[in-house]
């Protein structure tokens, strides 16, 4: 698997082999996880060739196998032989230590200090190898769950667009970007309970608080927004789209608002992990500040470590004026936090 994925990353395979790998990646989460891990290692090495490379994920298993093989090859084991049966009158016994004890007792085997030291070192080494692998696997599962949430929201937005002649949820002047969620609920595309679930990235404090039962994401109604006091209104707007940011379109230099259109393109961002003001580079902190998931209009998702588009060099969360606000022209793509309010003179 690893050789095939490395060849796929390096674009060193025939078209038919590449097609088979891509088909496997579509259906196999294990291949998806390994591809993402190898991609991170490749990116890290290109950025800093002197840095440590990622250890193989089966390193723990190989270490344990090596220790087991070493025990079997000790002189005590060699005398008996792996497949030599014991005499009928002799019952099998389990050695109490890896090496003979130096204690004077002849009727009992005990652990020597060298045995304890060696075993403790092995356990410590295995633990140091295992814990980072567990943490990495847990974060990989959370990242894939986040991508799955974005796809569910993407399917809902596509259905909305199909029902309305290709229009995505439009944000009216004076409304915040998170209103798109209420549009999906009000038109029966997704229930409020489903939206409350899909809007929470599992790698966030909000998700941890919800799991602990100390918080809940509840979507307001339009009536609640209209009657909420100013302080409560700000809080409702901030949490309306949960963990994610939405592309609402652009306001040109004449103050005319043009909502985003559904084109189904693989290079047209639709949703993303919301950016954070507390993270350098104004990228998302949903995944520890290390990167963000982006959902495109063809419903493909990509996890990127930088928030600048690789082709256009356009910042995904800042417009041409370096502001977290609607874009300034058609090619100025900006994904906005839920509480950002649209200012403009309406659709043109």
Question: Secondary structure elements and their pairing?
Answer:
Layout: H1 2-9, H2 15-27, H3 29-47, H4 59-72, H5 75-80, H6 113-163, H7 179-186, H8 192-198, H9 205-211, H10 222-227, H11 230-239, E1 244-247, E2 249-251, E3 257-259, E4 269-273, E5 292-296, E6 301-304, E7 335-336
Antiparallel strand pairs: 1-4, 1-7, 2-3, 4-5, 5-6
Description of the molecule:
This protein has 348 residues and is an alpha+beta fold. Among the domains are: 2-47, no CATH class; 148-336, no CATH class. Helices cover 43% and strands 7% of the residues. The strands form two sheets. The chain has a five-stranded antiparallel beta sheet with strand order 6-5-4-1-7, covered by helices on one side. Strand 5 and strand 6 (301-304) form a beta hairpin. Helix 2 (15-27) crosses helix 3 (29-47) and helix 4 (59-72) runs antiparallel to helix 6 (113-163). The longest helix is centred in the middle third of the chain and has 51 residues, at 113-163.
Cα end-to-end separation: 52 Å
Mean pLDDT: 79
Q: What kind of sheet is the major sheet?
A: 5 strands, antiparallel
- Give the helix level as a range of percent: 40-55%
What sequence of helices (H) and strands (E) makes up the elements?
Answer: HHHHHHHHHHHEEEEEEE
What is the number of helices?
11
The fraction of residues assigned to DSSP E strands is: 5-15%
Q: So what's the overall shape?
A: globular
Gyration radius, to the nearest Å? 28 Å
- State the secondary-structure class: alpha+beta
Q: Total number of β-strand segments?
A: 7
Oligomeric state of the chains?
Answer: single chain
Q: Tell me the strand order in the biggest sheet.
A: 6-5-4-1-7
**Parts with pLDDT < 50 across at least 5 consecutive residues:** 48-54, 76-103
């Amino acid at each position: 698997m690893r050789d095939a994925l490395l060849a796929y990353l390096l674009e060193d395979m025939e078209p038919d082999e590449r097609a088979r790998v891509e088909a496997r990646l579509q259906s196999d989460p294990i291949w998806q996880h390994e591809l993402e891990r190898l991609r991170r290692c490749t990116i890290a090495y290109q950025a800093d060739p002197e840095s440590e490379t990622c250890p193989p994920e089966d390193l723990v298993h190989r270490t344990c196998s090596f220790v087991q093989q070493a025990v079997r090859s000790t002189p005590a084991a060699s005398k008996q032989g792996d497949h030599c049966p014991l005499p009928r009158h002799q019952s099998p016994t389990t050695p109490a230590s890896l090496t003979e004890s130096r204690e004077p007792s002849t009727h009992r085997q005990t652990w020597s200090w060298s045995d304890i030291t060696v075993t403790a070192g092995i356990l410590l080494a295995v633990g140091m190898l295992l814990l980072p692998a567990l943490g990495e696997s847990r974060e990989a599962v959370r990242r894939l769950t986040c991508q799955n949430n974005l796809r569910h929201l993407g399917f809902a937005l596509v259905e909305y667009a199909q029902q309305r002649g290709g229009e995505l949820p439009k944000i009216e002047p004076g409304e915040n970007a998170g209103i798109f969620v209420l549009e999906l609920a009000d038109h029966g595309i997704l229930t409020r309970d489903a939206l409350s679930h899909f809007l929470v990235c599992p790698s966030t404090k909000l998700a941890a608080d919800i799991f602990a039962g100390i918080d809940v994401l509840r979507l307001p109604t339009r009536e609640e927004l209209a009657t909420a006091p100013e302080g409560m209104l700000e809080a409702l707007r901030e949490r309306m789209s949960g963990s994610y940011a939405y592309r609402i379109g652009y306001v040109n230099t004449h103050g005319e608002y043009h909502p985003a259109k559904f084109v189904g393109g693989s290079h047209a961002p639709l949703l993303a992990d919301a950016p954070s003001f507390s993270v350098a580079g104004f990228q998302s902190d949903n995944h520890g500040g290390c990167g963000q998931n982006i959902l495109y209009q063809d419903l493909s998702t990509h996890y990127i470590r930088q928030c600048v588009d690789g082709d256009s060099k356009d910042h995904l969360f800042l417009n041409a004026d370096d502001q977290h606000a609607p874009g300034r022209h058609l090619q100025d793509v900006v994904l906005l936090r839920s509480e950002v309010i649209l200012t403009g003179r309406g659709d043109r």
